[in-house]
Amino acid sequence: MNAATQSLSLQGPSGVLECVCDLPALGTYQGTAVISHPHPLYGGTMHNKVVQTLAKAFVQNGWRAIRFNFRGVGASAGVYDEGRGEVDDLMSVIQATSEASQSLALAGFSFGAFVTSHAVARLPSSLQLEKLVLVGTAASRFEVATLPTDLHEKTLVVHGEVDDTVPLASVMDWARPQSLPVTVIPGVEHFFHGQLPLLRMLVSRHLRA
After folding, report:
1. Can you give the pTM of this predicted structure?
2. Is the CATH number of domain 5-208 3.30.70.270?
3. Which residues, other chains included, contact 93 with Cβ-Cβ below 8 Å and sequence gap of 6+?
């Protein structure tokens, strides 16, 4: 991504997890954002364009961004576990990279948003979640967790109006009982083709709020 991108290998539940760390230009940061990628069986990796866009938004707003490959993807050990083991992978990355004295943010795209939703409930009390970003949330394919009410004001949910991978209606069905707002981008499909700068702007605006 930039000269301040570092490769990391962290120990996960099933072995080594391949990670990269993107740092702001000055090298100092206000907190750590851990970002989860799309479905491992359908080409999802930490190098996905939406995942990279999320990382850029965080870095440009003074956060350290950690991207990683779930088990069985790239150089990460293990095999796909239908989301269960992937939540464990995410938790291990959070625990290895978060600092109690600094803020924590979580973000995920598609399958990664589903995994992230379940990690929220498992965060230790010593970590303060300041921002949550869920993009293209895979509500039609997985059981996305309900978010705590007190976290809603810290949460940004973004979805494309014409997403044919995860229909908008399924996300609204998940969000409606929670009275959780959803930002809908007109005319945009699942991978935000041609609208990644807009996505980055929406995330940046949320981080500055």
Report:
1. 0.97
2. no
3. 10, 12, 17, 19, 34, 66, 68
